[in-house]
Specification:
This protein has eight helices and nine strands. It is an alpha/beta fold. The strands form three sheets. A four-stranded mixed beta sheet has the order 5-7-8-9. Helix 5 links the parallel strand 3 and strand 4. The longest helix has 14 residues. The radius of gyration is 18 Å and the shape is elongated. The N and C termini lie far apart (49 Å).
């Protein structure tokens, strides 16, 4: 049972005085701010990420990592100390493009765990829209590039779909 695995991992961290460096899985401490977006968030956040432990530094992983991974079958992710990269467009520009926001805007809870989930799934770079993309919007997104010709968005959540975009260097 997942709860027992989570509890065992957190108890092991506590016994080793690592409680301030080890955080529970996302499924325990994060919530979607609006139920209408819950299915979308579940489609983009992998189960392995959702049930992984979050560490604030490598020292905790070196002490607990083997037990957590081998004995409990849980993943471990260390959050970077660096701030998240800036999204390609501001929230206002994103709304002007017809989106509701970035996927990260719809998650709340423990900031360490949220940062890990956002980093691993690039939620701060993933536009979200409740309705499906129409052909015109799809074409617009495929043509949104930065000054170096790189796509602004490589994934988009819209309706019940996850859209992934790639651009060949030969285009």
């Amino acid at each position: 049972d997942d709860r027992n695995r989570f509890r065992s991992a957190l108890e092991a961290a506590q016994k080793r005085n690592l409680s301030d460096k080890v955080y529970p899985p996302a499924v325990c401490v994060l919530n979607v701010t609006d139920d209408a977006y819950a299915d979308m968030m579940n489609s983009i956040i992998s189960r392995n990420t959702a049930i992984a432990l979050t560490y604030t530094d490598e020292s905790a992983v070196s002490v607990l990592g083997n037990f957590v991974t081998s004995s409990l079958g849980l993943n471990s992710f260390v959050i970077s100390g660096a701030p998240l990269s800036r999204p390609p467009v501001s929230p206002n520009e994103l709304r002007n493009l017809g989106f509701d926001g970035y996927a990260s805007d719809f998650l709340e809870g423990d900031e360490h765990v949220k940062k890990m989930v956002v980093e691993k799934n690039r939620l701060h770079m993933t536009p979200v829209k409740m309705n499906d993309l129409d052909q015109e919007m799809l074409e617009r997104i495929k043509n949104l590039t930065d000054k170096n010709g790189k796509l602004l968005f490589t994934q988009v959540l819209a309706g019940k779909s996850v859209y992934r975009f790639i651009k060949s260097k030969y285009d």
